[in-house]
Specification:
flat, six-stranded mixed β-sheet, 21 helices, about 625 residues
Length: about 625
């Protein structure tokens, strides 16, 4: 499937113009068969345009020498491009659509069946040879595993067996996008291009997709705002800025560091040249009219005229200055929650909620939508009741709270008046300086709260939190409405702060960078004394027994004789299954060798018998593996 040729794609001097202006200007890029490339840049910079040009869905500009554009794809290479609802047959069912990916294999299967009849009816030796060749091709392309691979991808993308017969036209937009991605994964092109693939996926599906793509055999080209996704998958980053593309080795975090270092280096070069230019011009201006120094001045002017100008770099340093500082140091134990109930109205989301928050903790709260994450941070503040449990905030604790709904703001006030009403002693000059530090400048400060964007309201809330000087920061989805630059500014401010931080977020990059502990809300409240990366690893690695045994050690539970007997029976069954799978694997390997034997391939009845036996044992092995996983979860 994959060629030995490393190069998949080469593009050079590719430009694209929209409405008379360049979006891409002389962009060049090479993609090799093991590349994992992330594409980043501000909205509208040309990221999606780049992918659409590669996919042949948009044309690029023709240009004369020396900038003649080139776009070449390796002859045998297949390119796959994810676009929402692209290529799906609306009248087909979910499973039928996935089976359509393997049309060539099903055609081989049909040809094998036809050859079987010829061999049975006529004993045709040439048909027997053709049958052996077709069988080998079918097997080499995992033809016997089509259903296994379809179920694996559909399950990973959130489509259970109960969805297989659903007609595609009845799916939601998000479901169609997920299904289009599932189909693309099964097609396994040599270059897989994904444009914001995580937009319609929940966290578990994103984690599954990361694992699947980490083992993908082809090249990846991914446009995404999900910085954690880029960090986990990418080995290089291409940023598109001011119509040009630059490529950096490493993942997204490495790219940020390298880009900042490059900004500093280029700025020093530019400043050095500007200083030299100023000196040369000054010398020329003062000496050009003097007879004794005129020749020297002309020499300096020639140097000026021939100097290759260094382009002033566009700096990525953040202009905002968010700082979360406080005046009073809290005690070692900041908050104790014991046996609380997490309730939303009359509905109880979790019972026996217990945890302690210590000074300096950075607790990330995660879990699916609707599980009660926002409810939890409102409960610990006393906004919602905690049932019969206990909730104790220690002395010298001052809370500063960011509410994702911004309910504490007054919609009819201007941004500047919102601060005036709370801090009447502040002058307009100080307030404008404060708002400027969160990138609220100019006439924007006189706009009403209800007409500015969600991102601008969030920035106003950060300004208020800076004034509050809380030593405990509680934040509910603080990055939801922020662009990447502002997110990174906020992350820097939170990372630099020594305050205790409790925050709810779907932003996995923020969770990973900031969290020292994780609280998972999902039908219960579980506390993990680890960072987000380790927490994710514990969830996705098949080492659940370690977690279960640790929990048992921390909280001994008396088990009845019947329960112990049932556990012993399950463990015995697990061992029995492992032995059966080992035997089946040996038998499957033997059958594969026998089916490849020319004498067997020439005997239609014998080969058919071997194929049937192979399929039966493969199916049994898969069923036993499912049972083995289920039993492991139970003991």
């Amino acid at each position: 499937m994959y060629s030995g040729d490393k190069m998949v794609l080469t593009m050079k001097n590719i430009s694209r113009i929209y409405n008379g202006a360049y979006v891409l200007d002389n962009v060049s890029l090479t993609v090799e068969n093991t590349d994992r490339i992330g594409v980043v840049g501000v909205n509208g910079c040309g990221k999606s345009t780049l992918l659409r040009i590669i996919a042949g869905k948009e044309e690029y500009e023709t240009q004369p020498e020396p900038d003649v554009p080139q776009l070449s794809v390796r002859r045998d290479a297949r390119i796959g491009f994810l676009e929402q609802d692209t290529g799906l047959d609306r009248s087909s069912t979910v499973y039928e659509e996935m089976k359509s990916v393997f049309g060539d294999l099903y055609r081989i299967w049909d040809e094998m069946k036809a050859l079987e009849h010829r061999i049975a009816d006529e004993g045709d030796e040439r048909a027997q040879e053709e049958y052996a060749r077709k069988t080998a091709e079918f097997e080499s392309k995992d033809g016997y595993l089509i259903d296994v691979n379809i179920r694996k991808v559909l399950t990973g993308m959130g489509f259970g067996a109960d969805t297989y017969d659903r007609v595609i036209s009845t799916l939601s937009g998000g479901e169609k996008t997920r299904l289009a991605l599932a189909r693309l994964l099964l097609e396994a092109p040599d270059l897989l291009m994904l444009d914001e693939p995580t937009n319609h996926l929940d966290q578990d599906t994103i984690i599954w997709l990361e694992g699947y793509l980490s083992e993908y055999k082809g090249a990846l080209l991914i446009v995404s705002h999900d910085r954690y996704f880029l960090d986990k998958l990418c080995t290089s980053i291409c940023d598109i800025e001011q119509k040009h593309l630059r490529r950096w080795k490493g993942n997204y975090t490495t790219y940020l560091k390298l880009r900042e270092e490059d900004d500093e280096r280029r700025m020093k070069l530019w400043e050095s040249q500007q200083e030299e230019i100023a000196k040369l011009r000054d010398f020329v201006d003062r000496n050009i009219v003097r007879a004794s120094t005129s020749n020297m001045a002309k020499s300096r002017q020639k140097k000026l005229d021939s100097m290759e100008p260094v382009e002033k770099p566009v700096l990525h340093h953040k202009t905002a200055d968010i700082r979360f500082e406080y005046d009073i140091e809290p005690p070692e134990e900041v908050l104790i929650v014991k046996d609380a109930a997490l309730c939303a109205g009359d509905k109880t989301l979790a019972r026996d909620v217990s945890f302690t928050v210590r000074r300096g903790d950075r607790i990330g709260i995660t879990g699916p939508n609707g599980a009660g994450k926002s409810t939890l941070i409102k409960m610990i503040q006393g906004i919602y009741p905690c049932g019969d449990g206990k909730l104790f905030w220690n002395k010298n604790v001052k809370i500063s709270y960011f509410d994702q709904e911004n309910t504490q703001l007054h919609p009819d006030l201007t941004l500047i008046d919102e601060i005036h009403t709370r801090y009447r002693g502040m002058t307009d000059e100080k307030i404008r300086k404060l708002l400027g530090s969160v990138r609220l400048t100019g006439e924007n400060v006189f706009k009403r709260v209800d007409v500015v964007s969600g991102g601008e309201r969030a920035k106003l809330c950060f300004a208020l939190m800076m004034l509050e000087r809380g030593n405990v920061l509680i934040l509910d989805e603080p990055t939801n409405h922020l662009d990447i630059d502002t997110r990174e500014i906020l992350e820097e401010a939170l990372a630099d702060s020594t305050a205790t931080i409790i925050f709810v977020s779907h932003d996995r990059y923020l969770l990973n960078r900031l969290s020292t502990r994780i609280i998972e809300v999902n039908g219960g409240v579980s506390v993990f004394d680890m960072g987000y990366d380790e927490y994710v690893s514990r969830k996705v690695m098949p080492e659940k027994q370690e977690k279960q045994e640790r929990a048992k050690a921390e909280k001994p539970v008396h088990r009845s004789k019947q329960q112990r007997s049932e556990d012993a029976r399950k463990k015995a069954r697990i061992k029995e299954i492992e032995e059966q799978i080992h035997v089946l694997d040996t038998e499957l390997a033997r059958l594969q060798e026998e089916m490849a034997d020319p004498d067997v391939a020439a005997d239609y009845l014998l080969l058919n018998e071997k194929c049937t036996e192979y399929e039966d044992k493969k199916r049994l092995s898969s069923e036993l593996a499912d049972e083995w996983l289920m039993l492991l979860d139970e003991v």
